[in-house]
UniProtKB/TrEMBL annotation, chain A:
Residues 51-126 form the ChsH2 C-terminal OB-fold domain. Pfam families: OB_ChsH2_C, zf-ChsH2. InterPro entries: ChsH2_C, ChsH2_Znr, NA-bd_OB-fold, Thioester_dehydratase-like. Gene3D superfamilies: 6.10.30.10. It comes from Streptomyces asoensis. SUPFAM superfamilies: Nucleic acid-binding proteins (SSF50249). This is OB-fold domain-containing protein. Residues 14-48 form the ChsH2 rubredoxin-like zinc ribbon domain.
UniProtKB/TrEMBL annotation, chain B:
InterPro entries: Thiolase, Thiolase-like, Thiolase_C_2. It comes from the Bacteria. Residues 259-377 form the Thiolase C-terminal domain. SUPFAM superfamilies: Thiolase-like (SSF53901). Coiled coil: none annotated. This is Lipid-transfer protein. NCBIfam families: PRK07855.1. One of its GO terms (molecular function) is acyltransferase activity, transferring groups other than amino-acyl groups. Pfam families: Thiolase_C_1. Gene3D superfamilies: 3.40.47.10. CDD domains: SCP-x_thiolase.
Length: 138, 385
């Protein structure tokens, strides 16, 4: 499987994720959250930022079900879902992820017909610190 | 100081050239590039030694030095490369038009040579090198452009009630035109609704026929000042308006982090394009709209102002995109059915329409919109004769 290739801006996200926390970068001066992380605030141009903890709740904005040809590790699990989650506290922050049956479960652990736009989801983390999502009401 | 008049009708495309298109061509990309460029110069009646400007995509593998050396260009005084893959097509012409209008060069060649049909596919290679922006998407299995656009397509279908039949209308219009074009990869391969609806998935909701062809081939065109164009072998096709578009808070093909991800780069390019044009969308006789994936067409129809927000699906109904329809589309077959050469075939097809030499000629076509890839930082041209 592909593992995140992080940069200086993105590394804190993955460090927090490894601790089981979903945090997003926010401007220390104007308070605006932003994603993906970057050096300065597009609203007020401040370089001061903090990592704000999120509840991990959100709704599915959209989803796809990829089929091969795919990288071998992914082809082995296809078809699987990839979802785009709108965070409850910051609807413009939409995170790409997978809807799974439970923490650490494979990409194809939930039948694609369980995925629908608007469904409420909750973040969980797999053993490697990758955020995953489960249905709030399974 | 003379007044700045911009690029409106200041330059014209006077030559086009292309190689054959196929899944596999034996020659390498550099050789194909040379053939397309020389064909375009011959079409224009301009000697290679007169070329002093070049433009292509950053993804072009044949660089300026190699091309200039191989085909025998003169001294180059302007060269430019446009980023973001298929978003760069129309900008190659736009950069040359701007350079020539500004006096930085006199004869420009834009080109694209690509062996995607027989070349490597990145998503079959386990040693793929991930760019860092991909840390937010690829680990989760959103691997290919088809997956990234399918995410927007699913939302689009959900939000506006568009259907797979609308996407089929796009695929069918392109295929029907390819069936009239002997140079098209899909020349003798008709498409039916049954074939479309029963084809295999690539990334649901996108099926096989929602995706462009993997093609080997090269194309080029020649741009000169409108004054010089009068002396060329062919009737000039004027660059009436041109634009690039990279909207605020954009993030590549995964444009998921702005207020409305369904409003992409086309909207940004369109604002500039129409502002500097004497015509409006209702004056466009024929359109060549970038079609790496079918959903890009309804999105672009909205972005370039042919219909309102959410109406792009319905716009495709009733044969609107077919010959004789409201907006004949991709008359060579487009990326879906002629060849996928990063959209450069759409530029040359636009020129053919305005010369009256298309294999699916729109009678009396006098204006043509050509667009580059929607979803990535893009570009567009309004051509007129």
């Amino acid at each position: 499987m592909l593992t995140p290739v992080t940069d200086a801006d993105g590394a804190p996200f993955w460090r927090y994720a490894a601790q089981g926390e979903l945090r997003v970068q926010a401007c220390t001066d104007c308070g605006e959250p932003r994603f993906p992380p970057r050096p300065c605030c597009p609203h007020c141009q401040s370089f001061a930022s903090e990592w704000r903890r999120m509840s991990g709740r959100g709704r599915i904005w959209s989803y796809v079900v990829p089929h091969p040809p795919l990288l071998p590790d992914y082809a082995a699990q296809a078809p699987y879902n990839v979802i785009l989650v709108e965070l409850a506290e910051a609807p413009r922050i939409r995170m790409v992820g997978n809807l799974v049956s439970g923490p650490g479960a494979p990409l194809n652990s939930l039948s694609p017909d369980r995925v629908r736009i608007g469904a409420r989801v909750q973040v969980v983390f797999d053993g490697d610190g990758l955020p995953q999502w489960v249905l709030e009401r399974p | 100081m003379p007044a700045v008049t911009g690029i409106k009708d200041a330059t014209a495309i006077v030559g086009i050239g292309q190689t054959s298109f196929a899944k596999h061509l034996p020659e390498d990309e550099r050789t194909l590039a040379c053939r397309a460029v020389l064909a375009a110069l011959d079409d224009a009646g301009i000697a290679p030694g007169e070329v002093d400007a070049l433009a292509s995509y950053t993804m072009e593998e044949t660089d300026e030095v190699e091309l200039a050396k191989a085909v025998g260009f003169g001294d180059l005084t302007f060269f430019s490369k446009i980023g973001f893959g298929g978003g760069g097509s129309c900008a190659t012409v736009a950069h040359l038009a701007a350079a020539i209008a500004a006096g930085q060069a006199t004869v420009g060649v834009a080109w694209r040579s690509r062996k995607r049909g027989s070349g490597p596919r990145p998503w079959t290679n386990t040693a793929v090198q991930l760019p860092t922006p991909a840390q937010w998407t690829r680990p989760f299995g959103l691997l290919r452009p088809a997956d990234e656009i399918a995410m927007l397509a699913r939302r689009y279908l959900h939000e506006y009630g568009a259907t797979r039949d609308h996407l089929f209308n796009v695929a069918l219009a392109c295929r029907n035109r390819a069936n009239q074009n002997p140079a098209a990869v899909m020349y003798e391969r008709p498409l039916t609704r049954e074939m479309y609806m029963s084809s295999r998935w690539i990334s649901e909701p996108l099926c096989l026929y929602d995706n462009c062809l993997e093609t080997d081939g090269a194309l080029a065109c020649v741009i000169v000042s409108s004054e010089r164009a009068r002396d060329c072998r062919r009737a000039p096709v004027y660059v009436h308006s041109a634009a690039q578009g990279l909207p605020a808070q954009h993030h590549g093909m995964v444009n998921y982090w702005n207020d409305d991800p369904l409003t992409g780069p086309a909207w940004a390019a369109a604002r500039h394009l129409w502002k500097h044009a004497d015509i409006t969308p209702s004056d466009v006789d024929v359109a060549q709209i970038y079609d790496a994936f079918t959903p890009l067409v309804p999105l672009s129809l909205e972005g370039y102002g042919f219909c309102g927000r959410g109406e792009g699906g319905a716009f495709t109904e009733g044969g609107a995109l077919e010959t004789g329809g409201r907006l004949p589309l991709n008359t060579g077959g487009g990326g879906l059915s002629e060849a996928y050469v990063h959209g450069f075939n759409l530029i040359n097809e636009g020129v053919k329409q305005l010369r009256g030499t298309s294999t699916a000629q729109v009678p009396g076509a006098a204006t043509c919109l050509v667009t580059a890839g929607e979803g990535v930082p893009t570009s567009a041209l309004l051509l007129r004769n």
